[in-house]
Specification:
The complex is a heterodimer of chains A (395) and B (86). Chain A is α/β, with parallel strands linked by helices and 395 residues long. Chain A is built from 13 helices and 16 strands. In chain B, the strands form 2 sheets. Chain B has a two-stranded antiparallel ribbon with strand order 2-5. The chains are: A alpha/beta (395), B alpha+beta (86). At the A-B interface, β9 and α8 of A face β1 of B.
Chain lengths: 395, 86
């Protein structure tokens, strides 16, 4: 293990190299492009054993990656935003096929209007696809989750693909200290590739062919049950990672609790801005407000038991950097379903790169303490005490 | 932990994996053995693999033949006739 100062994209590219990925189908899209550029540069220098397939679209990127994985090797790709939406059909195909594949989503807003900045709606819109879905809060965690993803997805109790969300620019392009494991450490952690079946001309099978409605439904239930079973696999993989690879994470649970033990109020949040929420909580505690943070790391599987245990006796605020139009934030609806008898407030903010930091969080939390229900859209002008400019694109 | 819940969407190739498709037929091919020259054009063209080769001549597997008539169309010896099922 060695310390490096690298970006989230660098960390993920190194994780792919260290995991001995054999094939990657790549197509560029901001903000993940530097991952595949970094992989290509490593390949050019002769440091990477991964075969790189350059394709003409994200749909093909996932198709190429899936084909390689089906043929029996560890395969990886990365995308974001419009690219993920264009890939959507293949995303479902991979999960339904039960072939382990790992993907990074450098989260980004979805147009129109055109916007390359961070939000989580692209990632959240895949939550019904059958993929295991984790979200990083630091470049370190993006690396850790990428390496553990290969172990989780290739476990016989799971055999599902996994995507790792990473906030566009905030994590993908910001350099921080990352503990990079050695090749020996990762080799001792990742077992040889396993998958439920292999595309092999010597032993022919029909993949994903027409099934009867009853068999189709049983296969859908199987994905659901594998998701539920993956909870213990994720925790095992996380604990083993901290033992053998990088010993600093919080991976003995699916999600992370911060100063929640004695808290009256809890802020549920996911991704890079969780750390801003933790800073806000530190300062609000000095003012006597008993508030903590519950950081969601896994959207799928949903950690129902952990959520209920951590939050059922608190007043809950859920911050969503994404929205399901006509309903509210996706995390808000998830938490609300787990805690039907709790007062929960949902705040949607930070969309399209709207900058939300510690000070804005403090304003949001104070308002929530005054009125802990409902759904609200929060604009940072409120916290910065500046007048709302009339946006030029609205009359 | 039991892995009984793990099911995968694949199947092994086998005869009639989609059920006996012969009952889809409304017309059926009849082979006139006296005219059959054993060229196997019908065997090559049949999309369902229901042409059986027997002693240099051909026969039809009626359990799975859907009655599409491709064999009738490609037979150079005009040894196949399509007749109504009813």
């Amino acid at each position: 293990m060695m310390e490096k100062v690298i970006s989230g994209n660098d960390a993920v590219a190194l994780a792919v190299k260290l995991s001995r990925v054999k094939v990657t189908g790549i197509y560029p899209i901001t903000p993940q492009t530097y991952i595949i550029e970094s992989l290509s540069e490593m390949k050019d220098r002769g440091e990477l054993e991964t075969e790189i397939i350059r394709v003409e679209s994200e749909h093909s990127a996932m198709a190429a990656t899936f084909g390689a994985a089906a043929a029996g090797v560890r395969a990886y790709t990365a995308t974001a935003s419009q690219g993920l939406l264009y890939m959507h059909e293949m995303v479902w195909w991979v999960a339904g096929s039960r072939i382990p594949v790992v993907m990074t989503v450098g989260t980004r807003a979805v147009g129109p209007p055109w916007n390359i900045w961070n939000e989580h709606t692209d990632f959240m819109s895949e939550r019904d696809s059958g993929w295991i879905m984790a979200f990083a809060s630091t470049p370190q965690e993006a690396m850790d989750l990428t390496i553990t993803a290969f172990r989780i997805t290739e476990d016989e109790r799971v055999f599902l693909p996994m995507m790792i969300g990473m906030d566009g620019f905030i994590l993908s392009h910001t350099k921080t200290r990352v503990y990079v494991p050695s090749q020996e450490e990762v080799d001792s952690y990742l077992p040889p590739r396993r998958q439920p079946y292999v595309l092999d001309p010597e032993d022919s099978i029909a993949m994903g062919n027409m099934f009867s409605p009853e068999d189709y439904m049983k296969l859908r239930e199987s994905i659901h049950r594998a998701q539920i079973a993956s909870k213990e696999v994720i925790v095992e993989a996380g604990k083993e990672y901290m033992k053998r690879v990088v010993p600093i994470g919080s991976y003995s649970t699916l999600n992370e609790s911060y100063k929640l033990e004695d808290a009256d109020y809890a802020v549920v949040i996911m991704g890079a801005w969780s750390l801003d929420a933790m800073q806000a909580v530190d300062e609000l505690r000095k003012e006597g407000l008993k508030v903590g943070v519950y950081r969601v790391r896994f959207v799928r599987p949903w950690a129902e038991e952990e959520v209920v245990k951590a939050l059922s006796d608190k007043s809950v605020l859920v911050l969503d950097r994404s929205v399901s139009f006509g309903r509210g934030g996706q995390l808000y609806t998830e938490v609300k379903a787990s805690l039907p008898d709790t007062d929960i407030k949902g705040v949607i903010t930070g969309l399209g790169g709207v900058s939300i930091g510690k000070n804005e969080m403090k304003v949001i939390i104070r308002k929530f303490v005054e009125k802990p229900q409902g759904i609200e859209w929060f604009y940072p002008e409120e916290a910065r005490k500046i007048e709302l400019r009339s946006p030029r694109y609205i009359k | 932990m039991s892995l009984n819940y793990q099911l995968f969407p694949i199947s092994k190739p086998g005869k009639g994996a989609g059920g006996k498709t012969g009952n889809w037929r409304i017309v059926k091919p009849l082979v006139h053995e006296d005219k059959c020259v054993g060229c196997k054009a019908c065997y090559i063209w049949c999309p369902e693999g229901t042409i059986i080769i027997k002693d240099g001549k051909v026969a039809v597997d009626y359990e799975y033949c859907k009655g599409c008539g491709i064999c009738f169309n490609v037979c150079p010896a005009k040894a196949i006739e399509m007749v109504s099922e009813s």
